Amino acid sequence: MYNSPNNNSPILRRSNFNTSSQGQTTTINKPIAQNTGSSPKPEIAKGPIIPELIPLDPSKKVQVIPIGGLCEIGKNTWIIRCDDKMIIIDAGLAFPSEDMHGVDLVLPELTYLIENKDKILGMFITHGHEDHIGGVANMLKSVNIPIIYGPPLAIGLLEGKLKEHGLLQKTVFKRTKPRETIQIGSFALTFVRNNHSIPDSFSLVIQTPAGLIVHSGDFKFDHTPVDGELFDIAALAEAGAKGVQLLISDSTNAEKAGFTPSERAVFPKIEETFAKANKRIIITTFASQVHRIKQILEIAQKYGRKVAILGRSMLNIALVSRQLGYMNFPDGLLIRSEEAMNYPMQKVCILTTGSQGEPLSALTRIANGSHKQVSIIPGDTVIVSATPIPGNERSVAATINALFARGAEVVYGRDSGVHVSGHCSQEEQKIMLNLVRPKYFMPAHGEYRMLVRHGKLAEEVCAMPTENIFIMENGDVLELTTETCAVVGEVPAGIIMIDNSREGTIEKSVIQDRAKLSSDGIINIVITLDQNKIIAGPDILFKGCIFGDAQQQQEITNKIKAEILKANDLKAAEKSLEKFVKAEFEALKQNPIVQILLMEVN
User: Fold this and answer.
1) Alpha helix locations (H) across 369-425?
2) Which pLDDT does position 24 carry in this prediction?
3) Going by DSSP bridges, is the β-strand pair 181-184/187-193 parallel, antiparallel, or unpaired?
4) Cβ(199)–Cβ(326) below 8 Å
5) For 263-415, which CATH superfamily applies?
């Protein structure tokens, strides 16, 4: 049975520290275990890991507002508000669904932030994955963020992004360390190292006047991490001992029993595949999967293969990671893609983006035979070191089918052993819940069914009261006090759709029109008028419409023309003509776009 915080004794005692005024920040550094390539020795804390900086205040209300990351994978963006000031945690992007024709990226709607832009104190980044930092540049174009706190790798990746957008010189960064506490306004945030598929990943322990909030970030409990950096369980346990009001926790693998395997588990299978391959190896993974890329480069070096990296994002991440010390590979290991043909096939490895079957990615173009430098040679071994994000299954399957059709041997799938998730499974979610022992719980980072399953886990296994579990949607406002927790309203929380080939955003109506065009087609009707009398046309052109036969098409054409010719005033009748045309297509179960172009001669 869960022990909820004792409401008769404060979660955080009033401390001897002087709290900062609104908008000012104070940094408290703790000793950090140095990474020597092996597991660091446990740090012996000489005092509390989480210094008590923010006293409890029963009169204060703290609001937790997700504007991205709930009921979906990606777009993780959180706002925490108190005393009419707010902090932002992460600002991510999501990939478009298949029905978002021509959309490259999906970002959270920023209406609420723009309306409250003068209240923003700063942003805190948990780690450097795109679904947590990919929306920062767009956000900075709309609102001013006085300072961005985050781990060195995430900040290094952000600097490259902001430089491309011309925003780097306008942005203030503060690189944070494990167990470092930042006090800002009515908040104090402690960075707690966790395990994920990228180095420098953190959970956050957030002190507020309403009590402690723990934001797990993306995590799993990896006892043999690639970089030797262990999850700082002691910090979580200390937070749990103090008393946690609210836990916000990763739900991505809430449907999976057991534990998520260590990142090191993929090393033997990938190495085995390298040892067996006697021609080229093409391997794809997430561009931001730094631990995986590190292992691939080490294995390639061991087997004497040069590596060509396809995909600007992946190459940039590899170079930034090397510059910051998260990877170590010799200068001669990487070659340009056009140089690969100069080496024997058994001496080449191509590392590429496209693990999600993205239409314009390098792997998809290779599979379709449209890549300029690389094409499949029968006998190539292709390793898909990733699993499809929900919604991408069909495009990934199509890419794998195309690779097989061109003669490649493809190693893929959950049972292949070449990929493990970076997210916690059910047993690790139980550990998090039992370490933190929150009074209230909000599942996050997952589709709706995942959030529900995570909530059920807390209720059934950890005996958390149902009324203390909040399954929320983007835009819902959760309000905390020292005694209560409730959903009190909502804020705007839609989406922004981006087409990288054009400036600006894509309106929802455009996507709806594109969907209609792809499924129902378009009808163009052109009429030339002179003083409202037809002098040319009507010319009717069908594009993408389906007819039973040519006779049916001619009959519908004749009906439309007859309706146009009997109209007394074509300008006034334009809308009714459109309805008439659509009605003719109802029997065909089609709803085409109708465009009527009236050209008037002066």
Assistant:
1) 393-405
2) 53
3) antiparallel
4) yes
5) Metallo-hydrolase/oxidoreductase (3.40.50.10710)
